[in-house]
Amino acid sequence: MKQKLLSIFFFSFIFLNVFGQKKIDSLKIKPKYKANFMVGFDVVNAGVSAFSERKLFQGFISTTYQKRLHLIIEAGFEKNTYKKNGYDAEVSGPFAKIGAFYMLATDRENIENGFYAGGKLAGSYYNQEYFAVPVRGFQGGDVSVAFPASTQSSYWLEGTIGGRVQLFSSKFYIDLNIQPKYLVYTTKQDEIIPVIVPGFGKSSAKFNIGFAWNLAYKF
Questions:
Q1: C-beta separation of 161 from 90 below 8 A
Q2: pTM of this prediction?
Q3: DSSP character for 192?
Q4: Mean pLDDT, range 70-85, rounded to an integer
């Protein structure tokens, strides 16, 4: 009899412990997203713009969505010229990117420090003008044709690989990354493939690589 009572007590204890714990776990409130933002500006490309025909200004806003997962929005403006292989073109316009990245390795004392990788969807809506486009002329001679200014759009996929580190004990960070890009779709003017796309760079090939050296501030 005692053995039977002990068995009932034992299995009752296990049952209550297992299923009671599951019920408690189900009632636990998951941590909610807490608003946090980091804002950065690409100081290197902006500085180079003062000494180059390429004028590139870009920045980002990111937020830590989960412990290592960050959401990011980037935006910028680029003005550039292309004078090569008989082409003479000028483009200018804004671009935007949206995506996420994951911190692959972080500092124990500050999870904002570390290395990351991610991806973004990007697009640009810009103005372009061709002052000269090489075409095959009469009797096989090369001549140039000009085209009026037009508005075009392009879209691409962009990866991001980089790292960030805090400046001393301040709220400022240095964020450096490289951006492999693949042009997915672009509109054309008279079937001419764009030679430059703001935010993407020279688009004579569908693959390109960019970089950013940002000075960021954590709110």
A1: no
A2: 0.82
A3: B
A4: 96
